[in-house]
Amino acid sequence: MPMNELFTLLNSQSDAEVEATIWLNIFEEIPDSAFSDSTDQPSSLTIYALKQYARAYVDLGDESVVLN
Amino acid sequence: MRDLRQLADESLVKGYISGNSRCIDVLIDRHKNKIFTYILVSVKNRELAEDIFQDTIVKVIHSLKAGRYSENGKFSSWVMRIGHNLIIDHYRKEKHLSTVSNDNFDFDLFNHPRYSAKSVEDRLVYDQILRDVADLVTLLPESQKKVVELRHYKGLSFKDIAEELGVSINTALGRMRYAIINLRKIAAEKNISLSIN
User: Distance (Å, rounded) from C-alpha B108 to C-alpha B4?
Assistant: First the structure.
C-alpha cells in the first residue's frame, strides 16, 4: 500500500493533485470522531437538499430526481 | 432517529438500501464534517468545496442504491475516496487534461491494476521503477528523504512519523509534499519514466 501510494503521488498530473492525495492519506488516519465539533462544515442548506434528494431517490429509485 | 444514531455505519447502509431514508440522514450527519473538511483543505475554496461535497454525496447515494458499496473497509474512507476522485476530476478539467471517469467513482487509485504486476515483464518493469525511485529518494534533502522512507518504505502513519521525527504533523506533511514535488522534478530532469503501462 505505501509504495502504491508513492507511485500514485509521483504520477499525479499536478502539484494540486499531490496535495489532495497527501491530505487524503492524512485524513484517513484521523478518527472520524475528531471532526464532530469541526467548524468547517457544509452549509445547512446543502445538507437539507441532500437529505431530501436521498429520500426521494430511495423512495422513487429514479435517477431523474433533481437536486435543487 | 435516536435509535438509528446508535447503529454502526454498515447497519445504516443496509437500512438505507432497504428503503429507510432516515438512515442516510444519520450517515450524512455523522460524516459530513470530516468529508467536507478534507475537500475544503484540498481545494481551498468554500463554494467549490460545497459543490464537490454535494456531488460526492449524490454519488454515494447512487452507488449505495446500485449495490456498488462493499464492506471492505470504513464507510467514511470509501466516501472520502469518492470525494478525492472528484477533486482530481476538477483539477484535470481545469487544466483541460483527460479526466478520471465519474462513472468509475469507486475506482481505487491506490489499487490501480497497473501497479499489480501480472506478467514477468510487468514485474521486471515494476522492479526497475522501484530501483529508480529508491535512487531518486537518495537525492532528496535529508529531512524529506526521512519522511518518504518512514511513510513509503516502513509504512508509518503521519502521526507516527511526526512523533519519530519530533515535528508536527503539518511539518511532516510539508516535507512529504516537497519531497514528492522534488522527486517528480528530478525524474523529469533525468528523463526517468515512473509510469507502469
Answer: 30
